[in-house]
Batch of 3 targets.
Target 1
Amino acid sequence: MFDDLRDLYQEVILDHGRKPRNFRRLEEADLSARGDNPMCGDRMELFLNMEGDRIADAAFQGRGCAISMASASLMTETVKGKTAEEARWLAAHFRELAMTGSCPDCGGRMEDEMDRLQALSGVYEFPSRVKCATLAWHTLNTALDGGKEASSE
Ligand code: ZN
């Protein structure tokens, strides 16, 4: 198991897992939601500040495996400045990337962002870790919907 996972732990995951970006609480967050992946024990709380329909700031706190923390770190970096629609689009296509290892439906939209998220695409080979990678994005969708609790589905 450990040897297999090593391929997955690319530098980006290790870097973001050790030093998560945007790892803080937004005290006056416009939107927030908790995410829980009991399969692995990953838990997080996501905070969003909105300016109209645009995500002005995104931050999270939580604890979990390196993949869940790295994914949340990358997610908050990626959605900052995006509209809610763009963020939902990224969530849907990140999910496809995590489940299949590629995203033929992305069609070149937000290419730079999808390239960056590619760092986590290796999880598709490890079905039990897919939920670790997608938890942050489920939590994002839940927060954008005005919900409070996201499960790893
Ligand atoms: Zn995990």
Note: The pocket of zinc ion is lined by residues 37, 40, 42, 64-65, 67-68, 132 (CB under 6 Å).
Target 2
Amino acid sequence: MAESTEFRTQDGVLPAAEVRAAALACGFALVGLAPAEPLDSRPLVDWLAQGYAANLSAMRRRIEERLDPAVVVPGARTVLVLGIPYDAGVAPAGIARYARGRDYHYAHRDRMRKLRGRLRAIDPSLRTYACVDSGAAMEKAWAERAGLGFIGKNGLVISRGHGSWFTLSLMVLDRGVDAYDSPHPRLCGDCRKCLDACPTEAFPAPGVVDARRCLSYHTVENHGEIPAEVRAKLGPRVFGCDVCQEVCPFNQGDLSPGDPRQAPRILGHMRAAEIAALTEAQFEELATGTPMRRIRYDGLRRNACLSLGLIGGEKDQALLGRLANDPVSSVAEAASWALREIGMP
Ligand code: SF4
């Protein structure tokens, strides 16, 4: 017999077990619930003041909304934090693991849409604000507060079951729940493997990332010129960087598998030379629906050319020579630079 809404939501309080079960049924492997109290503003304000956001202009907007869920949902009482794991298997290092499969934004949005429907079946007048990596939210801080994992010295959220190989989203609810999760304690201890392994020394302090030095920022977000000292450290990387995750002890051993719907696609396994040689039509076919669409055709070819300057050789000379005459200046510049780096100007 179906329960009545009145029975299941008392005084605007939802049963946490039902909310969690609904999230799991919608395909989220990690679920946490935190009271929607405002976040400490200092880490974000300091980070922005230091210029560590580089050209991530979105981070400078809607600060109040990022820090206080009640600004986006009047009467906010709960932040529901959600995670989807991705494949952490070893493959050519050109593409970061999170980006090898379906774009996680779509995966989260689809599942959150279903989840919102399920929650409204419990409480039809529920109001929500959902966000995946783009709206006014601080997913990592909320994930730690909701017990999903802890923020490591590499600035990523680490869970005991999944390491840091998962993506996050969150949903603000204007309802309480009858049981919240406890914040996760930080477990890095004396370890500093990620800080020492970073190719560009992009961590000015534990847990603080300077995007101006971060290979991931430059290969994913920077459509302009990549500074010489950064491009010199690209190595085989074409889109994103996993070094600070690969060395983390919490990412070793018997972790839970990635979501099969986020399994790597063909482009996720390609090497720099193959990527640099793609036609625009091939790129559109292979990159559509993946995060690599973000840097667009010319950005990905630029990155691949720069990488070839560091890992390529004589066999890549003809390809780079052709791309050095590409009508797109960023690609031509990168290919010319790569030819000089491999000693074939
Ligand atoms: Fe923490 Fe060590 Fe992992 Fe870095 S590598 S996040 S310091 S446990």
Note: The beta strands are 13-14, 30-35, 78-85, 128-131, 150-151, 157-158, 166-173, 176-177.
Target 3
Amino acid sequence: MDFAFDNGFHAAMEGFYAPAEAARPSVPALLAFNQALAERLGLAVGRAKDAQLVRVFSGMELPQGANPLAFAYAGHQFGHFSSQLGDGRALLLGEVIAPDGARFDIQLKGSGPTAFSRNGDGKAAIGPVLREYLVSEAMAAMGVPTTRSLAAVATGDLVQREQAHPGAVLTRVASSHIRVGTFQFFAAHFGVEHVTQLSDYTIHRHFPELVEATNPHLALLDRVVGLQCELVGHWLGIGFIHGVMNTDNVAVSGETLDYGPCAFMDRFAVNTVFSSIDANGRYAYGRQPQIMHWNMARFAEALLPAIHAVDPADVDRAKAIVDAIPDRFRDIWHHRMRAKLGLGQADEADGRLIDALFGELEQHGVDFTSFFRALAQLLRGDGAMLQALLPDAEAMAPWIADWWAQLEREAIAPLERADAMDAVNPLYIPRNHQVEAALEAAEAGDLAPWTALLEVVQNPYVLRPAWQDYAQPAPADAGPYTTFCGT
Ligand code: AMP
Ligand code: MG
């Protein structure tokens, strides 16, 4: 199999990675392969047999031109700085250029120890691998910038966590793996030249138009901040909780990176936390914008030497960019919420309406995903879906009346508006109880529920009566849901 690799990082950034080698799996078997993504990437796998895919995507056989390496990075984990992290359970096979010219990293995750594994085994268990595959593909289908999943292969080996689990390797595709933590690594260990080198590389790879800016490093900060505001706006809009927004898990490309204990909320509650290791709720649903702001402040700090070297006066401009994040995020968020609520033109009253909505949803324990579909149904003259979500007929009536009044400012036909809302409000998300059941079955050797769920979440917007169960929240008697990092 020839991927026509073009390994730019390897050539340009020597010293900032370690060569890596994949462990040999004992009895690898293909769990999933993403043919559509392979085509998008222009990979020459058209006639490859499953056996060959298995060898390549388990790390057993190195495709021609691969130059496997583990990235070095640092990062703030739950607020505490660690100057030496790095790919401890992942290796980059190489970079490919898709037919449209876009460059992608192809990485194996769970393929054994690297120079950065510390005490870890470098392995991944099947549950987290299939969770990442499913959730990242659901995110892509919902238009959220994200890393993608190309393949999942069972290794036939056991991975010891609290219990022993079957092991697996995920093939992750990203527009790059440059993280805020990569900048922090360069800033912590090296001088301004290296930070500048990484910034130049990032600009060249992701934002070539910024080369022309008066201070390209300042322009990079501004661009990355904008992308992170957009990203977190996407997350909040679909009830997604990343779970580990450590700076090493923040991609400067603006893609969602590192699916660990992530999950979607059913009933709206702003403090929702699923991760077993997030006891203080640092990464709760509603805290994600603040944490993004904090992470961007750490990014600015790491970039500062490069910014300062071009023009010391730009340090104040960098500070202003970071200080403006809450306002910038709010604008992006309101824009997104207007689309979800079917509001067209921005209006002064929207902010109040949007803010008030979340108090109402929380007070009445409304299923977040279904609510927006129910509003569209109301526009079609069918109030039954909304009624079924609310405790009584009067609940939210004043808010609904306010929303209706806002809609009436614009002469848009209700059906047209309802269709526009349905096009941005998913009906099918990876519901926690469905994900859990699918992963449990997969671990026991039955992939059918996982494969069925994958197909559902890859088609999030269009109603299919046969998929009715997938649109339902967890049953009312389901206990609290907890997720674990444990790849
Ligand atoms: P995460 O919390 O998933 O972002 O991981 C944080 C750091 O721990 C990264 O540097 C990972 O590479 C490393 N790590 C996590 N799990 C393992 C493992 N099983 N073996 C080696 N390193 C790991
Ligand atoms: Mg990570």
Note: The pocket of magnesium ion (ligand 2) is lined by residues 248-249, 258 (CB under 6 Å).
